[in-house]
Amino acid sequence: MLMLVGLCLVIGTCGLWRKALEHHSRLDEGAYRSFSPLICVMRHPVLVALAAAPVVLAAATGAGWGALGETGQAVRIAAVIMASVLAWAYATYERNYLYERAHLLERLALPILACAIWMHPAAVAPFLMVLFVVLGQFDHPRTFFATRTPVRLPIDLLSTAGIGALLASVGVGEPGVVPIAMLAVFGAHYAAAGLAKLRLAEGVTWWLRRNELVNLFINAHAQGWMSRLSGKSAARLAGILRRGTPVLAAATLAVELGAVLAPVHPWVAVGVLGGCIVLHAGIYATSAINFYKWATADAALIVMTLVLVESGSGGMFGWGALWATLLVLPLAMVVMAPVRLGWSDTRLCIYFRFIAVGESGTTYELPAAFFAPLDVIFAQGRFYFLRRRPHLVDTFGCNTRRDERANGLAEAICATGGDPEAITRLCAHRGLKKYDPASANVLEEVIRRACVRPGRHRWWRRLLRACAAPKHIDVGMRGVPYHDDEPLREIIVRAVETYAHPSGRIDTVHDEVVLRINVGEPVLPAATRRAA
């Protein structure tokens, strides 16, 4: 009972604190056009108070990682590993061409504060505040959807470790509660993904019985993932994946739903954490989606578990810890709000190609990486506001919708057999209208700014690329890549719609030009853009 109460207090407090810190750290676009958005934070007293409160509490109690007793070293090692990966990723992102600011203060603060976490858990608060401020730049322009899914698990684990240690210093929960709370948060994130797959509109067991996982690979390959594979080789690999779908689907659900069992025994924890790492490796191999931040967080928890066993603290695991974790799971689902990573994989895929025409007339293709640090947004390709046609599916052909018209959409697409007219009728009947000229104007400005990058910052960009962390979505392209070969004259954006047959063959259903951009034209100011 004491463990259950302690878990509720730690997870509830950490979750609400993290949500409040993230909410108040969303700065306006003007802050990122300044020398340092971190300096602009001084105008947000609530944000400053949320970041300073743990530091003040630590100063008042005088306790550090030692407040966790024998478990402190294990939790500290895990926290530093996760903070180091996040600092690496967001201290070395490419210079943001929208603002043309280096934001050196923020870049330097992240690794310094990550090192400070080793010294004291209170450093977690300012570290996360700086991280949220850095992440906030990707929320602009507002037209685009910037996902924070890649960082959700390590951030929640990090806040649980740091704030949990401070709570233990004032007597909130026993010291052994914090590592179990971290495993509970881990289990909540993965279980939420498994439950989302079981709660699709098609039915509780539909994802396990009928979802075609192979479509994720085929649709990624159509966009350029594993582009060196020939059509025959890709079709052969798709056939193997199709035959193995029942096993892969069952294994995926077993890993995600089984994550809640980690607290029952140290070796069970190591097993389920290792299974999650293997799951992410498989996702990357078949779809170009690289959850390395989640996989690193899982590895950090493995290290934490092994250190706990070595220090003689493995006794905190057991059936009591498991039952307490299961009982606190609904609270973790609410306050941590894990991402619902559940969708159906359809045979239809919609993506956008960015064709560049140089001054010499040479044609190139701009990969998503060209638009870094907005590369994840361009890799996801959710630019449906460019198309006058209603759209049916999202990134890599997945169906994430939960409205009535999305029910049975995967089967309806399959029933068309790839016939363009049948797909057009299905779009008209069950698709969503997203066409928006204002959003298209914003995208046009973003692309034009990306294509007229000042040459004086080229060395800085090359340095950042050399030090950069892996991309979250590593999908390639099919055309000749552009590497600043010559000044660009025109950008042509094409919307491509493909259909994947069971044999592995990919047919192009529609291919249309949705936007033409004259790079030489001046970038429109915001007021003029909205008027246009």
In short:
With 532 residues, the protein is an alpha+beta fold. It has helices spanning 2-24, 29-32, 37-40, 45-61, 72-91, 104-119, 124-136, 149-169, 177-198, 206-209, 214-223, 231-243, 245-258, 266-287, 292-310, 319-335, 375-380, 409-415, 420-430, 437-451, 458-467, 526-531; strands at 344-345, 348-358, 363-365, 398-399, 488-500, 506-518.
Task: Report on this structure.
With about 525 residues, the chain is an alpha+beta fold. Helices cover about 55% and strands about 10% of the residues. It has 22 helices and six strands. It has helices at about 1-25, 30, 35-40, 45-60, 70-90, 105-120, 125-135, 150-170, 175-200, 205-210, 215-225, 230-245, 245-260, 265-285, 290-310, 320-335, 375-380, 410-415, 420-430, 435-450, 460-465, 525-530, and strands at about 345, 350-360, 365, 400, 490-500, 505-520. It has a four-stranded antiparallel sheet with strand order 3-2-5-6. A two-stranded antiparallel sheet has the order 1-4. A hairpin with a 5-residue loop joins strand 5 and strand 6. The longest helix is centred in the first third of the chain and has 23 residues, at about 1-25. It is globular, with a radius of gyration of 24 Å. The N and C termini lie far apart (about 65 Å). The relative contact order is 0.13. Residues about 525-530 have low confidence and may be disordered.
Query: What is the percentage of strand-forming residues?
Result: 5-15%
Helix/strand structural class: alpha+beta
Spatial strand order of the main sheet: 3-2-5-6
β-strand number: 6
Poorly predicted runs: 523-532
* Count of alpha/pi helices: 22
The averaged pLDDT comes out at 88
Alpha-carbon distance between the termini?
Answer: 63 Å
The largest sheet is:
4 strands, antiparallel
